[in-house]
Write a structure and sequence with these properties.
The protein has two domains: 59 residues, Arc Repressor Mutant, subunit A (Orthogonal Bundle), CATH 1.10.10.10; 251 residues, Rossmann fold, CATH 3.40.50. It contains 14 helices and twelve strands. Strand 9 and strand 10 form a beta hairpin. The termini are far apart. This is Sugar-binding transcriptional regulator.
Length: 324
C-alpha cells in the first residue's frame, strides 16, 4: 500500500486530517480504533476518511508478486503472436467486464514507461480512461502528450481530448489536442480541416512519438463509439457488411487487419495506422469477448511491442490463428 503525498494538496484542516488518517493506517499500520483514539475522533469518521482518500486517488495499492499461471499465459501469447512483451491481468469471470483489471495492470506499466523528454501519443476509450487512477504521476520535464484523433462531443468522460488532457496533467506536461470531430461529413471537409486549420501539424507530431497508448473498439455491439452520434446504427451495420471487425482510432479494419473499403474511413480525423506502426513503443491495452477478433486483427496491423489484456481474453486469443 502506497500513500501518494504529491496527490494531497493540503489546504484545509479536513484535508490535513484525511492525510494523517491515511498515513497512520496504511504506513504506520495503526488500527482504525487506535487512530480514532489518537486523533480524538470516532471510528466511523476514520472509516469515512479512509474511503475518501481512496476515492480521491490519494492512496494506491501496488501488488508486486507474480502469478505463475499468468506468466505462462504471457509467454504463450508472446510466442503465438510474436509480441515483445505481454502483461496478463488475473480475471476469473468469463462473462464479466475485464476493463478495471486491464486498466490496473496497464496503469502500473505506464507509470514505469514515462520519463522526461518524451512525446506520448494517446488514443481513447473506457479502458484507457480507467487507467488514470492507477498511474503514478510525476513532474516530468519536456513531456508532451498528443491526442491521436478528433473529439467525441457526446462521450463525456471517454472523450479523447479529456483523456489526453488528464494524462498530460498527471506528468505536468503539455497537451496537444485535435480540435475537430473524430468523424466529419465528407473527405473534402477532412482535407480542409487538415490543410487550412493547422491540424496537419498536430498529426505530424505523430512522426516523433516515443510511445503510443492504444485501445481497440469492437463493432459487434452498440459500444461507446456508436452512441455518440458520429456513427449511426446504419453506419455500424454497413461497416460490418464491408468486413469490419473493429477499429483502432476509428480506423476500421477487417479480420486480417486491413482497412476496410468504406467511406467512413475517408471521413475520419485520426492518425493513420501507417504512422502508428512507425512509433518505437506501441502499447495495446484492451480485452473482452466482444473485441476478440478486433484484437487479433489489431495485433497484426500495428504489431504492438507491448500488449496488456486479461486472463480470459488471453486464453481465447491463444485459440485463434495469428494473421499470416
Amino acid at each position: 500500500m502506497q500513500v501518494n503525498p504529491s496527490a494531497v494538496v493540503v489546504q484545509s484542516e479536513a484535508e490535513r486530517l484525511r492525510a494523517r488518517v491515511a498515513w497512520l493506517y496504511h504506513i504506520e499500520n495503526y488500527t482504525q480504533n487506535d487512530i480514532a483514539s489518537q486523533l480524538g475522533i470516532n471510528r466511523v469518521m476514520v472509516v469515512r476518511l479512509l474511503a475518501e482518500a481512496r476515492r480521491r486517488n490519494e492512496v494506491r495499492v501496488t501488488i508486486s508478486s507474480t502469478l505463475s499461471e499468468m506468466t505462462a499465459l504471457e509467454r504463450q501469447l508472446e510466442t503465438h503472436y510474436g509480441i515483445g512483451k505481454v502483461i496478463v491481468a488475473p480475471f476469473a469471470d468469463a462473462d464479466g467486464d475485464p476493463t478495471k483489471v486491464i486498466a490496473a495492470a496497464a496503469g502500473a506499466l505506464i507509470s514505469s514507461l514515462m520519463h522526461s523528454g518524451m512525446v506520448v501519443g494517446v488514443g481513447w476509450g473506457r479502458t484507457l480512461y480507467n487507467t488514470l487512477p492507477f498511474i503514478a504521476g510525476a513532474a516530468l520535464d519536456d513531456f508532451r502528450v498528443v491526442s491521436l484523433l478528433g473529439g467525441i462531443s457526446a462521450a463525456r468522460r471517454f472523450n479523447p481530448a479529456e483523456f489526453a488532457w488528464q494524462f498530460a496533467e498527471l506528468f505536468k506536461g503539455e497537451g496537444f489536442l485535435v480540435t475537430a470531430p473524430a468523424v466529419v461529413d465528407s473527405p473534402e471537409t477532412k482535407h480542409a480541416l487538415l490543410e487550412r486549420c493547422g491540424l496537419a501539424a498536430i498529426f505530424e507530431m505523430a512522426d516523433k512519438l516515443d510511445v503510443a497508448l492504444l485501445s481497440v473498439g469492437g463493432i459487434s455491439a452498440l459500444t461507446t463509439s456508436y452512441r455518440t452520434g458520429y456513427l449511426s446504427e446504419a453506419d455500424r451495420r454497413s461497416l460490418m457488411d464491408a468486413g469490419a471487425v473493429g477499429d483502432i482510432l476509428y480506423n476500421f479494419i477487417d479480420k486480417e487487419g486491413r482497412l476496410v473499403d468504406h467511406e467512413v474511413n475517408a471521413r475520419v480525423i485520426s492518425v493513420s495506422l501507417e504512422r502508428l506502426r512507425r512509433t518505437p513503443e506501441r502499447v495495446l491495452i484492451s480485452g473482452g469477448p466482444e473485441k476478440l477478433h478486433a484484437l487479433r486483427a489489431s495485433i497484426s496491423t500495428i504489431k504492438p511491442t507491448i500488449f496488456v489484456t486479461d486472463e480470459q481474453t488471453a486464453g481465447a486469443l491463444l485459440q485463434l490463428r495469428p494473421v499470416d
